[in-house]
Write a structure and sequence with these properties.
Strands 1-8-3-6 form a four-stranded antiparallel beta sheet. A four-stranded antiparallel beta sheet has the order 2-7-4-5. It contains eight helices and eight strands; from the N terminus they run H-H-E-E-E-E-E-E-H-E-E-H-H-H-H-H. It has about 190 residues and is an alpha+beta fold. The longest helix is centred in the C-terminal third of the chain and has 27 residues. The chain is globular.
Length: about 190
Amino acid sequence: MDSKTLFQNIQNKVAISEEEFEAFANLFQYREFKKKAILVEEKCANDKLYFIEKGLLFSYKTLENGELQVIQFAKENHWMSDLVSFFTSSKSLFGIQALENSQVWMISKTDFELICSQYPKMETVFRLNFQSAYVNMLIRVSDIYSEDAQSKYFNFSKQFPDLLQRIPQYLIASYLGILPSSLSRIRKNFKA
């Protein structure tokens, strides 16, 4: 499989030549996952970091009542992992599942450490990724506590218009922290 999309993602963050990329590209493994495949199981060790070439993933936590609380969605050209487990070698906090048939590039924790130590530009790439993820998570937490349901949906639809047709409504409702029936009402008013 051609790793051109992965190369472009990295190149968008740091100046890197194809020759430099080829020196470590073999540390990334290409995998395909069918819709509903579990990439990371909750409460299990995770030592993989995923770059999504094609498809859609989501992270979640299973609540005591058995329902899923959606934490994050990740589409093409984005990275995803349970970073708590990845960095601490502890059990994962969240599961990760494919919402669509997905093509990903993954790197193990061992190879991640190798790349970061041998290729400083890649350490910069990962720092920028983690920095962005942290900022986005803080914004999301702030929105959870300060926005009403209608504002949450409006902001989601503005930030991710392409995902509205790709994600089942009950998962969007879970991500927003609202009931599916509330989301249905909001969507009717939103279209009016």
